């Protein structure tokens, strides 16, 4: 699914971007702060001056469960609009996912208008979505941070609070990176 070396690049990039921001490889990375560094505007629907109030209201009420975040790009500028009704950890994941699309320079997918709701919808490129999800997970929880969490003896709840992520994401990253296995083997010796 991923091109050769993509996962390794994501891990290295996640550490590099922290270094460029003057942070340790094991420190949490707030997606909203990263957006500022990247000069990407991030807002809630009702903060868009040109979006009619009734539309933004429907987005956070009737259609709140139908969307997470969307990136609008034009002329090298990017705007991420996120769903404020989601939990903090979900918002972090959603915004980081959108930032990953920007960092990976993904081409926008096809946009069309739904005749039923009147909202703009888009198609999804499965490869791009998978790449953005992988990079977002790496940015939120790079391997060095995962080792750091285990070596400090943080329970999952404390680690999730510190890094602003869900327990599902933490477990997933611990498993797919092999950190859990490496820690178990080290302790067994």
Q: How is this structure best described in words?
A:
With 189 residues, this protein is mainly alpha-helical. It contains nine helices and five strands. The strands form two sheets. It has a three-stranded mixed sheet with strand order 1-3-2, covered by helices on one side. Strands 4-5 form a two-stranded antiparallel ribbon. A hairpin with a 6-residue loop joins strand 4 and strand 5.
Structural descriptors:
three-stranded mixed β-sheet, two-stranded antiparallel sheet, 5 strands
SSE inventory with pairings:
Elements: H1 6-20, H2 31-37, E1 41-43, H3 53-60, E2 69-74, E3 77-82, H4 88-103, E4 111-113, E5 120-122, H5 126-140, H6 143-152, H7 156-163, H8 167-176, H9 179-188
Helix pairs in contact: 1-5, 2-4, 4-5
Anisotropy-based shape: globular
Chain-averaged pLDDT: 91
Q: What is CATH's topology name?
A: Arc Repressor Mutant, subunit A
Poorly predicted runs are none
Given helix and strand content, the structural type is mainly alpha
Rg from Cα: 18 Å
The fraction of residues assigned to DSSP E strands is 5-15%
Strand arrangement across the biggest beta sheet:
1-3-2
The major β-sheet equals: 3 strands, mixed
CATH architecture: Orthogonal Bundle
| Number of structurally distinct domains | 1
Record field, number of beta strands: 5
Please give the oligomerization state of what you see: single chain
Q: Tally the helices: what do you get?
A: 9
Order of helices and strands: HHEHEEHEEHHHHH
Alpha-carbon distance between the two ends: 35 Å
**CATH structural class:** Mainly Alpha
Helix content: 40-55%
């Amino acid at each position: 699914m991923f091109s050769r070396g993509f996962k390794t690049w994501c891990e290295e990039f996640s550490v590099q971007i922290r270094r460029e921001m003057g942070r340790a490889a094991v420190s949490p990375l707030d997606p909203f702060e990263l957006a500022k560094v990247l000069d990407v505007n991030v807002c809630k629907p009702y903060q868009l001056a040109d979006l009619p109030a009734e539309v933004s209201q429907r987005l956070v009420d009737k259609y709140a469960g139908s969307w997470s975040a969307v990136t609008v790009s034009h002329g090298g500028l990017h705007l991420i609009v996120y769903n404020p009704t989601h939990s903090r950890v979900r918002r972090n994941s959603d915004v980081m996912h959108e930032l990953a699309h920007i960092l990976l320079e993904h081409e926008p997918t096809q946009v069309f208008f739904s005749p039923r709701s009147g909202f703009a919808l888009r198609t999804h490129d499965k490869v791009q979505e998978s790449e953005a999800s992988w990079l977002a997970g790496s940015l939120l929880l790079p391997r060095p941070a995962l080792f750091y969490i285990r070596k400090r003896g943080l329970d999952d709840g404390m680690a999730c609070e510190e890094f602003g992520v869900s327990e599902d994401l933490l477990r997933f990253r611990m498993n797919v990176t092999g950190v859990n296995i490496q820690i178990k083997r080290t302790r067994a010796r």
